[in-house]
């Protein structure tokens, strides 16, 4: 009897030891599959930017440039006014991001710390706004911008996207996770709401604010549909639209030139991401602590 119990215990321990390893192995496989699905197009973009047109169309596919060339980059740069595209993208991205982060911080602070009638109703309306596709608001926004005379202007590109429900929601959740005792201590010391927001809440919620700003920057830097609709001259086009017209301007599509132009769009965002990546996990985790 003792022998059978010992065998059973041994098998149980072996099973309990193997199960976590199997789940861990499955997790690694899932991560590898995700990296391949996401990373392969990015790798192909970078690789094709250094290939000749003939090599890009060659069968079988070459995963490494057989004869690396830099000719695609000056050709792409000279095929369209990228200096103007960069200027427009920087202005609309930085202006839109600044407006969105400012409004999100203020509205999130109000929802987290201020008392006013129908506060929960306002928050429910905010959650409902998260469910509305952006495409539904394009026609009303366009009619409003047209009546204000903002077609083909920076204001027409920036202002309709200055308030996004997701940013307010993310920062509200992050603000609620902050230690309330610190905020109460600031109130006891005579600090008003603006001082508490700027000197207490924002420094403690810096990871969440940086994360929200990065998400806003990436969305506005890559925005294609709204700038395409609200602008009608080359001088007001942004980088994503410029790359689209670069593709259309070629009689035979020169994918090497297009991929080089795509790198003009990707590299600035990649640099910013590498600079602030340490804030991203902390910021998203802070927004998920308390509901």
What count of domains describes the coordinates?
1
Per CATH, which architecture? Orthogonal Bundle
Helices and strands, in order, run as HHHHHHHHHHHHHH
CATH C-level name: Mainly Alpha
Q: Please tell me the overall pLDDT.
A: 83
Distance, first to last CA: 53 Å
Helices and strands: which structural class?
A: mainly alpha
**Which value, in Å, is the CA radius of gyration?**
26 Å
- Number of alpha- plus pi-helical segments: 14
Helix content: over 70%
- Compute the number of strand runs: 0
Multimeric state: single chain
CATH topology: MetI-like fold
Give the CATH superfamily. MetI-like
Give the biggest sheet: none
Stretches where pLDDT is under 50 for at least 5 consecutive residues are: 287-291
Overall 3D form: globular
Proportion of beta-strand residues: under 5%
Transmembrane segments: 25-44, 90-114, 121-142, 154-175, 196-219, 252-276
Keywords: Cell membrane, Membrane, Transmembrane, Transmembrane helix, Transport
InterPro entries: MetI-like, MetI-like_sf
Membrane topology: Multi-pass membrane protein
């Amino acid at each position: 009897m003792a022998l059978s119990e010992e065998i059973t215990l041994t098998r149980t321990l072996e099973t309990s030891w193997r199960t976590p390893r199997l789940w861990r192995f499955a997790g690694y496989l899932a991560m590898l599959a995700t990296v391949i699905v996401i990373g392969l197009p990015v790798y192909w973009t970078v690789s094709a930017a250094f290939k000749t047109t003939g090599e890009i169309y060659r069968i079988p596919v070459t995963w490494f440039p057989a004869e690396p060339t830099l000719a695609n980059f000056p050709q792409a740069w000279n095929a369209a006014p990228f200096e103007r595209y960069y200027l427009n993208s920087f202005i609309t991205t930085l202006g839109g991001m600044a407006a969105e982060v400012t409004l999100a911080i203020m509205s999130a602070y109000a929802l987290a710390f201020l008392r006013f009638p129908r506060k929960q109703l306002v928050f429910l309306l905010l959650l409902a706004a998260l469910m509305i596709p952006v495409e539904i608001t394009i026609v009303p926004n366009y009619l409003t911008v047209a009546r204000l005379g903002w077609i083909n202007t920076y204001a027409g590109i920036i202002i309709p996207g200055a308030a996004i429900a997701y940013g307010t929601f993310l920062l509200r959740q992050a603000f609620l996770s902050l230690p309330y005792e610190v905020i109460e201590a600031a109130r006891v010391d005579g600090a008003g709401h603006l001082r508490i927001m700027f000197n207490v809440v924002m420094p403690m919620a810096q990871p969440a604010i940086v994360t929200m700003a990065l998400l806003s920057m990436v969305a506005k830097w890559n925005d294609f549909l709204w700038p395409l609709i609200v602008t009608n001259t080359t001088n007001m086009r942004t980088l994503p639209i410029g790359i689209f017209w670069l593709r259309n301007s070629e009689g035979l599509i020169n994918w090497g030139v297009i991929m080089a132009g795509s790198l003009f769009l990707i590299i600035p965002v990649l640099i910013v991401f590498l600079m602030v990546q340490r804030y991203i996990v902390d910021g998203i985790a802070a927004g998920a602590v308390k509901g």
